[in-house]
Specification:
The protein is an alpha+beta fold. It contains four helices and four strands; from the N terminus they run ααααββββ. The protein is flat, with a radius of gyration of 13 Å.
Length: 134
């Protein structure tokens, strides 16, 4: 349960996811950004995952280091689960004004475990970013 919570919290921290997409997530759907975040964590690309978070430009150096350490822990958790075997978009809901999205992903890990993760994304000038607000 702790492992599920950590991965979910990593996404939720973005609500409180490289070859497939660019670092900024610009031009990609909310689900694409959420998947990219997880794939970056799987590859140990903590900086890339950090760049997909909304509001990081205002973070102090200390806050940035704490968040990157937390993301590093999420990356370790993914490695313990033998990586990601597949990611399926369960649901992607974009608000009527197009500024917010809720994404649910079904993640199957290399060890056979399956989790559903939820994230909230906000549209920024750089594209969709995972929200770190609750």
């Amino acid at each position: 349960m702790k492992k599920i919570t950590l991965v979910t919290l990593a996404l939720a921290i973005m609500a409180s996811f490289s070859l497939l997409v660019s670092c900024s997530g610009s031009g990609k759907s909310p689900a694409d950004v959420s998947k990219s975040f997880l794939l970056k964590l799987e590859k140990g690309d903590v900086d890339g995952a950090y760049n997909l978070l909304n509001g990081t430009g205002e973070a102090t150096e200390e806050e940035m280091q704490k968040m990157k350490a937390f993301l590093g822990e999420g990356s370790k958790q993914l490695a313990e689960k033998k990586g990601i075997k597949s990611i399926e978009v369960v649901e992607e809901n974009i608000s009527e004004d197009g500024s917010k999205a809720d994404v649910t992903l079904k993640v199957t890990y290399g060890n056979g475990e399956v989790d559903e993760t939820n994230s909230v994304l906000r549209k920024s000038g750089e594209g969709w970013k995972i929200s770190i607000e609750k």
